[in-house]
UniProtKB/TrEMBL annotation:
One family name in Pfam for this protein: Helicase_C
Residue ranges annotated for the Helicase ATP-binding domain, each copy included: 296-465
Protein name per UniProt: ATP-dependent DNA helicase RecG
SUPFAM superfamilies attached to this UniProt entry: Nucleic acid-binding proteins, P-loop containing nucleoside triphosphate hydrolases
Similarity comment: family membership: Belongs to the helicase family. RecG subfamily.
EC number: 5.6.2.4
Catalytic activity: Couples ATP hydrolysis with the unwinding of duplex DNA by translocating in the 3'-5' direction; ATP + H2O = ADP + phosphate + H(+)
PROSITE patterns reported in the protein's UniProt record: HELICASE_ATP_BIND_1 (PS51192), HELICASE_CTER (PS51194)
Biased composition (Low complexity): 10-20
């Protein structure tokens, strides 16, 4: 299908080469131009920042006498023989006699008449490709053929990432033109450049860096412009990170102009009474986080804070304290979780902690989900509208259109990465007062590595629970070949007979909920049979439950609740128990096909045990594939699980294994990810950009704007197009 491409708004900034149509009035968009647009290469600067994948050295012809196996080289010679062979496969074979007496065989498995013509016996040609063999006989498979009489280029030849319908030659010419057209003038203040880490002073200009990376001069080792510690690369990374920090700082400043209710808690009010009523003392980390949140709530700008802490670090009680603070100030609080099971657990805890304090005030904790019965829901909505509901707990249904709050002061979101931008915007209108918006607290058990937090979430203040409540016994993690399943079942038996509880997690089988369910059902039956005669410490027969995604919400809750009460000794489950469930008596976690899970996911699952004082074990069952081996990346994940239980270390390794795009998941798509800088190795540059972005907005806002436009403007234009 042909879709007409509209002309860009400003043709002078459009690098895509244009050809005039016959009448010379309407610009016509050619195939390669459309391909450029598909790649997002619209403005000269976009093309200038489209860096080569690799380089070819066509600046000199290599004598074969100096060649080594595997060298990429340009050779020149006369065609001696040319033939099309049929065996073992149809192929074009030509032999080249090179000036220094060497010979090289050229082989093509796909070829065109142009190849036959270029390789006519007696013709002189140049061939560029990888040399295989030795002095006894050299071969090039699918070399690039070039004319022998053309002058050699002055620099390395860039090879660009491209797409169908976009020939390299076209792309090279477009980039060369763009380099001349793009405004590459300096935007970074000299003082900032003087402090740029990782490069000798003075740092390279953007102009010089791009010239070098697109057209390395003759004599440059082709590996050099690919070395990301090269000053040209440092310059690009610095530019990119600065742009990102400028964007984040801009968002932060915009938030600074919005208003939220100023919430002060009374000195001897609810938070203090809640603390006094808790059966434990807060950890230092919990106290710190609670204080940071309280300070934010007392400011007139909306809080935008992430509370992160490893599984079991006690985030819920910090959330409860924040809620108490808000309620004390006379406002309402909402707490949302991504699943009903999780929301239900929070609800249970919060009712237990807060209701005794709220009841005398005539206020209460209210439950709200999409699956509620109509009358119950109507009553909840009524309480929310009247303000009798001091705290509303539920799934994301809580911020739906028809839920009207009397005065919503704070929204708490558990597992922040499932809470999208649209939901955040919806939330802004829920304060019940047009002049203010609610504060926002997000909670996450997937710690974000420092570098990622600093780049992608710079407009987010972070409180970290880096300390587990005392008395937790460390979890021992073991790798077990799935063939030793019997031993695992025997171990389960021992645990349940001692009155302990066990999780057995079945993997998600790719794209098939049905197969998934079948595997879980089979395991459930197997465990039921194996434990049929077993009794727990009180002589009760052992029961095995099955939890999977297809069950109605009410059934899931009933099963989860039975497990929480200890009525089920074993819970076989697909990954629905992934986050947040809290059953301190569970001491054994079995994860089947552990090699199929992501690292963070494994860590989350493991966090379901080790929540009480009993020694806990996590068994990772792996099944070697057909080759009898587990893939390299799967092995790295399993190794990480055995080596550490520190969520931050796990997150760091997960980021290193997967890269930020996947680490954040598809939900974050739209976040401009880094093209040049690397979160793992460029921490010093990230720090530098973070220091200078606020300075630039303050002292040189026009430069800041120009820099931002250069780096992120193209994306916006492209998306609008
Ligand atoms: P998570 O951070 O994973 O959400 P939870 O809030 O569910 O952790 O807390 C895990 C368990 O630890 C809960 O049973 C909770 O009551 C308990 N807990 C929280 N804080 C403390 C503390 N300071 N001392 C002892 N136990 C605590
Ligand atoms: Mg939690």
């Amino acid at each position: 299908m042909r879709t007409p491409t509209p002309p860009t708004a400003n043709p002078t900034t459009d690098a895509a080469p244009r050809t005039a149509s016959a009448d010379g009035v309407e610009p016509r968009v050619s195939g390669p131009q459309r391909a450029l647009r598909r790649l997002g290469l619209v403005r000269p600067i976009d093309l200038a920042l489209h860096l080569p994948l690799r380089y070819e050295d066509l600046t000199r012809v290599r004598p074969l006498a100096q060649a080594r196996d595997g060298d990429e080289a340009l050779i020149e010679g006369e065609v001696l023989v040319r033939e099309v062979q049929q065996r073992p496969r149809r192929q074009l074979v030509a032999t080249l006699a090179v000036a220094d007496g060497g010979r090289c065989t050229l082989r093509f498995f796909t070829f065109y008449p142009s190849h036959l013509q270029a390789l006519a016996p007696g013709a002189r040609v140049r061939a560029h490709g990888e040399l295989r063999g030795s002095w006894a006989g050299w071969t090039m498979v699918h070399p690039r053929l070039l004319k022998a009489d053309a002058p050699l280029p002055a620099g390395l030849t860039p090879v660009y990432p491209s797409t169908a319908g976009l020939p390299q030659a076209y792309l090279r010419a477009a980039v060369a033109r763009a380099l001349a057209q793009a405004d590459l003038s300096e935007t970074i203040p000299p003082a900032a450049l003087a402090e740029l880490p990782g490069t000798a002073a003075p740092p390279w200009t953007l102009q010089a860096a791009l010239a070098f990376l697109h057209q390395p001069p003759a004599g440059t080792d082709p590996a050099q412009p690919q070395d990301r510690t090269h000053p040209a690369w440092v310059r690009l990374k610095a530019e990119e990170l600065l742009a990102q920090q400028l964007a984040q700082e801009q968002a932060r400043r915009a938030r600074g102009t919005r208003r939220a209710p100023v919430l002060h808690a009374a000195t001897h009010g609810l938070p203090a009474r809640l603390c006094a009523a808790l059966p434990f003392a807060l950890t230092g980390a919990q106290q710190r986080a609670a204080a940071e949140i309280a300070a934010d709530l007392a400011r007139p700008t909306p809080m935008h804070r992430l509370l992160q802490g490893d599984v079991g670090s006690g985030k819920t009680v910090v959330a409860a304290l924040a809620a108490a603070h808000v309620i004390d100030a006379g406002w309402q609080c909402a707490l949302m979780a991504p699943t009903e099971i999780l929301a239900e657990q929070h609800f249970g805890k919060l009712v237990q902690w807060l209701e005794p304090l709220l009841a005398p005030l005539g206020r209460r904790v209210v439950w709200l989900t999409g699956s509620q019965r109509r009358a119950e829901r109507a009553a909840a909505l009524q309480a929310i509208a009247s303000g009798a509901a001091a705290l509303v707990v539920g799934t994301h249904a809580v911020i739906q259109e028809e839920v009207a709050f009397a005065r919503l002061g704070l929204a708490i979101v558990d597992e922040q990465h499932r809470f999208g931008v649209a939901q955040r915007l919806a939330l802004r209108r829920k304060a019940g007062d047009d002049t203010v918006e609610p504060h926002l607290l997000m909670m996450s058990a997937t710690p974000i590595p420092r570098t990622l937090a600093m780049t992608l979430y710079a407009d987010l203040d972070i409180s970290t629970l880096d300390e587990l409540p005392p008395g937790r016994s460390p979890i021992v993690t073991k790798l077990i070949n799935a063939q030793r399943r019997d031993e695992v079942i025997a171990r389960i038996r021992t645990q349940v007979m001692q009155g302990r509880q066990v999780y057995w997690v079945c993997p998600l089988i790719e794209d098939s909920e049905a197969l998934d369910l079948r595997a879980a059902t089979a395991t459930h039956a197997e465990l039921q049979a194996a434990l049929a005669d077993a009794c727990d410490a009180q002589g009760r027969p052992v029961r095995v439950g099955l939890l999977h995604a297809r069950l109605p919400a009410a059934d899931k809750q009933a099963i989860m609740a039975a497990f929480a009460r200890g009525e089920l000794a074993v819970l076989v489950s697909t990954t629905v128990i992934e986050v947040g469930v809290d059953v301190p008596n569970a001491s054994l976690m079995v994860i089947e096909h552990a090699e199929r899970f992501g690292l963070s996911q494994l860590h989350q699952l493991r966090g379901r045990v080790g929540r009480g004082s009993v020694a806990s074990v996590c068994l990772l069952l792996y099944s070697p594939g057909d080759g009898g081996r587990v893939s390299e990346s799967a092995r790295a994940r399993l190794r990480a699980m055995v080596e550490t239980t520190d969520g931050f270390e796990i997150a760091r390794r997960d980021l290193a294994l997967r890269g930020p795009g996947e680490f954040l998941g598809a939900r974050q798509s739209g976040t401009p990810l880094l093209r040049f800088a690397d979160l793992a190795s460029d921490e010093a540059l990230i720090d530098w950009a973070r220091r200078w972005a606020p300075w630039m907005w303050l002292h040189q806002p026009q430069q800041a704007q120009r820099h931002l436009q250069r780096w992120l403007g193209g994306k916006l234009d492209y998306l609008k197009a």
